[in-house]
Amino acid sequence: MSRFRHFAAIDWSGAQGPRQPGIAVAICDADSNAGPALVRPGHIWSRPDVLDWMRRDMPRETLVGLDLGPSLPFADKGAFFPGWDRTPPNARQLWALVEDISADEPHLGAGAFVDHPEAARHFRRHGGREGDLFGGGRGRLRQTELAQQAQGLNPCSNLNLVGAAQVGKSSLTGMRVLHRIRADMPVWPFDADPGSGSLIVEIYTSLAALAAGKRKGQTKVREAELDACLARLASGPHLPFAGRYSDHATDALLSAAWLRLVHGEPALWAPQALTPELARTEGWTFGVF
Question: How many domains does the chain have?
């Protein structure tokens, strides 16, 4: 029997501004007959809202998946930011560095970090601004992202901040959340599962969609097919809500049910390529082999 009583998925956003229509939060309990539900449907979340919900209102014993990159590439060059004397030795200190440089920025934004003259050398930014250490092409990838490619997925570098598919902004703003919540709950694999309480993992919502029968490159789920996709994940139908069924909402609903279905597979907690060094620096996406 699983120790987790609830499963939550958070579709994140790194966009500017106080509130983010791109954030969606969904949750389901351990009973597969009970489908997932949106948390606060119709609410336009801020990033601090999500942090407060996780700290104060999220049920105990919840496995929560965050759809963001909790770290940056490290293994390929032996450092997050080669050549910078402030480059951190591990992910937790990376979160602290992003928080320190962005501390005066509201809404848990991370623009100040991206604009830092040393950090900026490693990012691709809007306006054709590509740092001299970005590396060209698609940019540097974490080892878990290389493993995602091997599974047929199409990850982007967290150092790329340009384009509709970029996840870099989400990752950097997410690091501020992880830095602030680190004392309240562990984050796998940077922390081991303590065996009780809630636990955070990194997710990639496309994995849930593929498991629910969607095709590669066509992983967004429409309202009309949502319950059929949930059924393929051994889940009951979702709790209907008023308003538009955005991609963010359906991603979160499907991912919560997927977490409930697959979290008990031991292999997902011990990927062959996940070394202690990667667990300390780059982390790993739950569900990637």
Answer: 2
pLDDT at residue 230, as a whole number: 98
In terms of domains, do 66 and 185 share one? yes
Cα–Cα distance, 16 to 35 (Å, whole number)? 32
Closest CA to 116 of 128, 140, 127, 100: 100
85 domain residue, yes or no: no
Q: Beta strand pairing status for 62-67 and 199-202?
A: parallel
Same domain, 27 and 162: no
Quick one: DSSP state of residue 228?
Answer: H
Q: What pLDDT is stored for residue 1 in this prediction?
A: 58
Whole domain around residue 126: which residue ranges? 91-172
Domain match, 166 and 190 both: no
Give the Cα separation of 58 and 27 in Å (integer): 9
CATH code, domain carrying 239: 3.30.420
Question: With pLDDT > 70 as the criterion, what percentage of the chain qualifies?
Answer: 100
What's the pLDDT tens digit per position in 89-111?
999 999 999 999 999 999 999 99
Residue 88, CB half-sphere, CA atoms under 13 Å: how many? 18
Average pLDDT over residues 181-186: 94
98 and 152 part of one domain:
yes
Phi-psi label, residue 145: left if phi above 0, alpha if psi -120 to 50, beta otherwise? alpha
Q: Write down the pLDDT at residue 267.
A: 96
- pTM for this entry: 0.96
- The whole-angstrom separation of Cα 68 and Cα 137 is 21
Q: What is the mean pLDDT of residues 205-229?
A: 94
